Records
---
Amino acid sequence: MIAVPAACFAWLLRGLDPLGRATAGVAASLCLLILVPQTMIIVRAWSPVGGLAVVAGICALVATAAWLRRPSAGAEAAVPAARQDDEDWIFDE
């Protein structure tokens, strides 16, 4: 139950390193899996099947957003160049 939302959120966060993506994906997944039932209980619409459907729908939206954000085939991934700061002298020996 945690893996699919975590994978969807991790796919959305391409700019992070793999450990950061996994951590943020699991955290977002846990938040989603806690907030959906709480909200459904508050509005008196709780059902296990309904909760699963809402989580699946949100995962589908997140996966669609991640798919739409993917770089196009002809475009190169923008890699930021190393920045030269005034404080580079600190590391010179």
---
Amino acid sequence: MMKATVFTAPGRIELVDKPIPDIGPLDALIRITTTTICGTDVHILKGEYPVQPDLTIGHEPVGVIEKLGSAVQGYREGSPRCVPAARNACVA
């Protein structure tokens, strides 16, 4: 299991356990050590940006590559990584 910050309702987020996602051949699994709160996260929390409850929020993390897909090249497991403005990263 992994910890995830989840939007539950305007003004409320919770830290919950979620399953660690499987990775595909072009994916990387990053063990997050630090993340930021950006304007989008604040708007979601305030209810100003419409999202469904149970959405995992947070992006632009810093962490360590835990696992790489079979087709990923140029990276190695165990190396530190910054993931700026992550796309498709919040799959949990």
---
Amino acid sequence: MREAFWRFTSMALRPGGRVYLEGMSRSRAECRRLHSERGIPRVLPLDPADVEVAARAAGGTVVLRENFTAAARSVRSGSPTRWRMVVEWPTPASAGEQIPTTGQANDD
């Protein structure tokens, strides 16, 4: 499913653009609790670093990331943590140029 998302995103943004992502990282225990208490199916731990790798593999450039360190801790054994990331695809004309951004690709 994730591969299809990134394939679609890279095709849709081939002329250039950004995708804004937000996720919630949870531990395995928290995922099991959500499933048993609320009946929410198929909740899995997700480290945002894995999402970043997939975005880069699809041709995107990460221009902003927030709360990645805390979210990675959440996956191991912590409270749920919300994270955000902005991924950019340059316009074909500017593919070889450096694109100025307002955010920085750093953590927290």
---
Amino acid sequence: MDKLKKLLEEADKAVYASQLESNSDNIGYSHQAIEKVEKALKDAPHNTSPTSDEQHAKDMLRRLKETQAAVNEIQND
């Protein structure tokens, strides 16, 4: 879970950077960071009932993806 937590922090920083300056480098980096979190969640052993850390990670990933989608939409306008 420590690796997942670190990946989430990196993704959060990357998405935040893309909000501040939505250039192709920042947006590309944030997409990569989000993909790493998704892969880590997929590769994590699955419990029948998710732990609170796992649920928190899934919720944070969803919010990061929503924020990134909004940044992409603004950039495309």
